[in-house]
Amino acid sequence: MKLAPAIASLAALFAAPAAFPADPIKIGLVAEFSGPFAAYGRQIRDGMKAYLKQNGDTVAGRKIEIIERDTTGPAPEVAKRLAQDLVTTEKVDFLAGFGLTPNALAVAPLATQAKTPMVIMNAASSIITTKSPYVVRFSMTLPQVTEPMALWAAKNGISKVYSIVSDYAPGIDAESAFQKAFTAHGGTVLGSVRVPLKNPDFAPFVQRAKDAKPQAVFIFVPAGEQGIAFVKAFTERGLRAAGIQLIGPGDVVDDDVLDVMGEPTVGIITTHHYSLAHDSPQNTSFRKAYAAVSGQGARPNFMAVAGYDGMAAIAEVVKTLGGKMDADKAMDVLKSYKRESPRGPIEIDPQTRDIIQSVYVRKVEKKDGHLYNVEFDRFPNFKDPGKEATKEAAK
Fold this sequence. Notes:
- The protein is an alpha/beta fold.
- 42% of the residues lie in helices and 23% in strands.
- It is built from 13 helices and 15 strands.
- Strand 13 (344-348) and strand 14 form a beta hairpin.
């Protein structure tokens, strides 16, 4: 009789399946966490963490795990090696991040070979999404945020411009998009120059622009330290004092460093898809979540919001698939994705896997002792014109 309880307990033990936690969903975050572009990785990562802070880090019973890898800067071979290790050793379900175009281009073929969805959270050369059917972008393209600047300038009394861009794919994209749209609407480009991506000395290029006597200088440089250096040279060489307007996509007045850049930025006009000052409940909530993970006073920029939206999209994939990952089904979810973002409404174009979004015209203003890109006009539901032009040519 004494054996009966023990036998019953053993029977119950073997009858009940053990409850083991599901493996985590692994995201391989390949970005710049050191060197002159270190802010890129920080902004993207903290944007992703802001989403998880708001919504929790478990989706469909699976915990989200972010595995960081540092490219140190524009280093395609390093990016490719890191991504290869993430895919083969860590068995990641997604590749994400990619602050710089050369790194994204190097990894795209690997995404195809490994059938691993690759979520771009900054790199902005138009061509990237054509390099793999597993690439989707939640940031922007340079033509997408640049063409509106050309259209706005041509309609608002700016007829003569000098162009300065960084000499790599996004800079060339920006230069081409601006000049094509600006001249098509009656504008004149007095001259253009491409500056080295690494360690540029802006002073001689800015002097050339001043000597051409334009009404405005169009500028594209990578966000962060180079924007600070360019505005400093623009001011010291007397272009601001001479009444020459500075225009371009929003990288040059990155929200992350705008306060550091100071008074010389006041009045700069740019077009971009996100501003810290964007007035919406979603942006207010996002800013609070970002401060919770990055520290009070931290200012999220356009890379942070792309990290946030990219993380939201990954979570939607996991939820829709019930936690059972399949790369092709994941891409189907991503290609039909829509969301009310902190930047405004966004959706993915299923044909190009690029983002459709509003592009805003902004002016730097000082409010309550801080500098902001204040929106005053917009181009709604704007697609990447680089791919739109390709479609038209193919007809």
